[in-house]
Fold this protein.
Amino acid sequence: MNRRNRNIPYVARNKIKKTEVPAKLPLLNETQINGDNSIMQTGFVNVSVNTALGALPIKDAVVTLYVTDQEGNEEALYHLVTDISGKAPIMSLPVIYNPQNPSESREYFFTTYNLRIQRIGYYTQNIIDVRVFPNTTTRFTVTLIPIKQDSVEDEEERTLVIPSSPIDESNV
């Protein structure tokens, strides 16, 4: 060891990225009853991102969870970045439902959200109508596909729309 380096302290740099939970989201396991008899509870979404059929995790992928209003405008609730193991922090989301509404399922209450996963060098993956249930974690393992070298990144996106179930159609 060199004598000059002996007195220089080692400096460790923290690479933890702070993400803030939007103020409008409920606390964990909190149940609120609103004035219109609707109930708000908390559900969770957990996302892992990889490539090569799940063999390799993708670090620094951007995971955006959002809702779309009636005009088609997106409102992002979370923008998170995956860690070295390809995992995004768990997202806590409100699940709002009215158990007295006959058009809603009497057995399974949920709120839908949308996911977008992006990383430079990969096609963007969209997942539409993700169902979030109260006190339940919905897990997604997303496989991103690398873009060919002679291709343009914005040329194509992959979109998965989660179809409605027969129970949804029977309640209308």
Notes: The chain is about 5% helix and 40% strand. Residues 166-170 form the longest helix (5 residues).
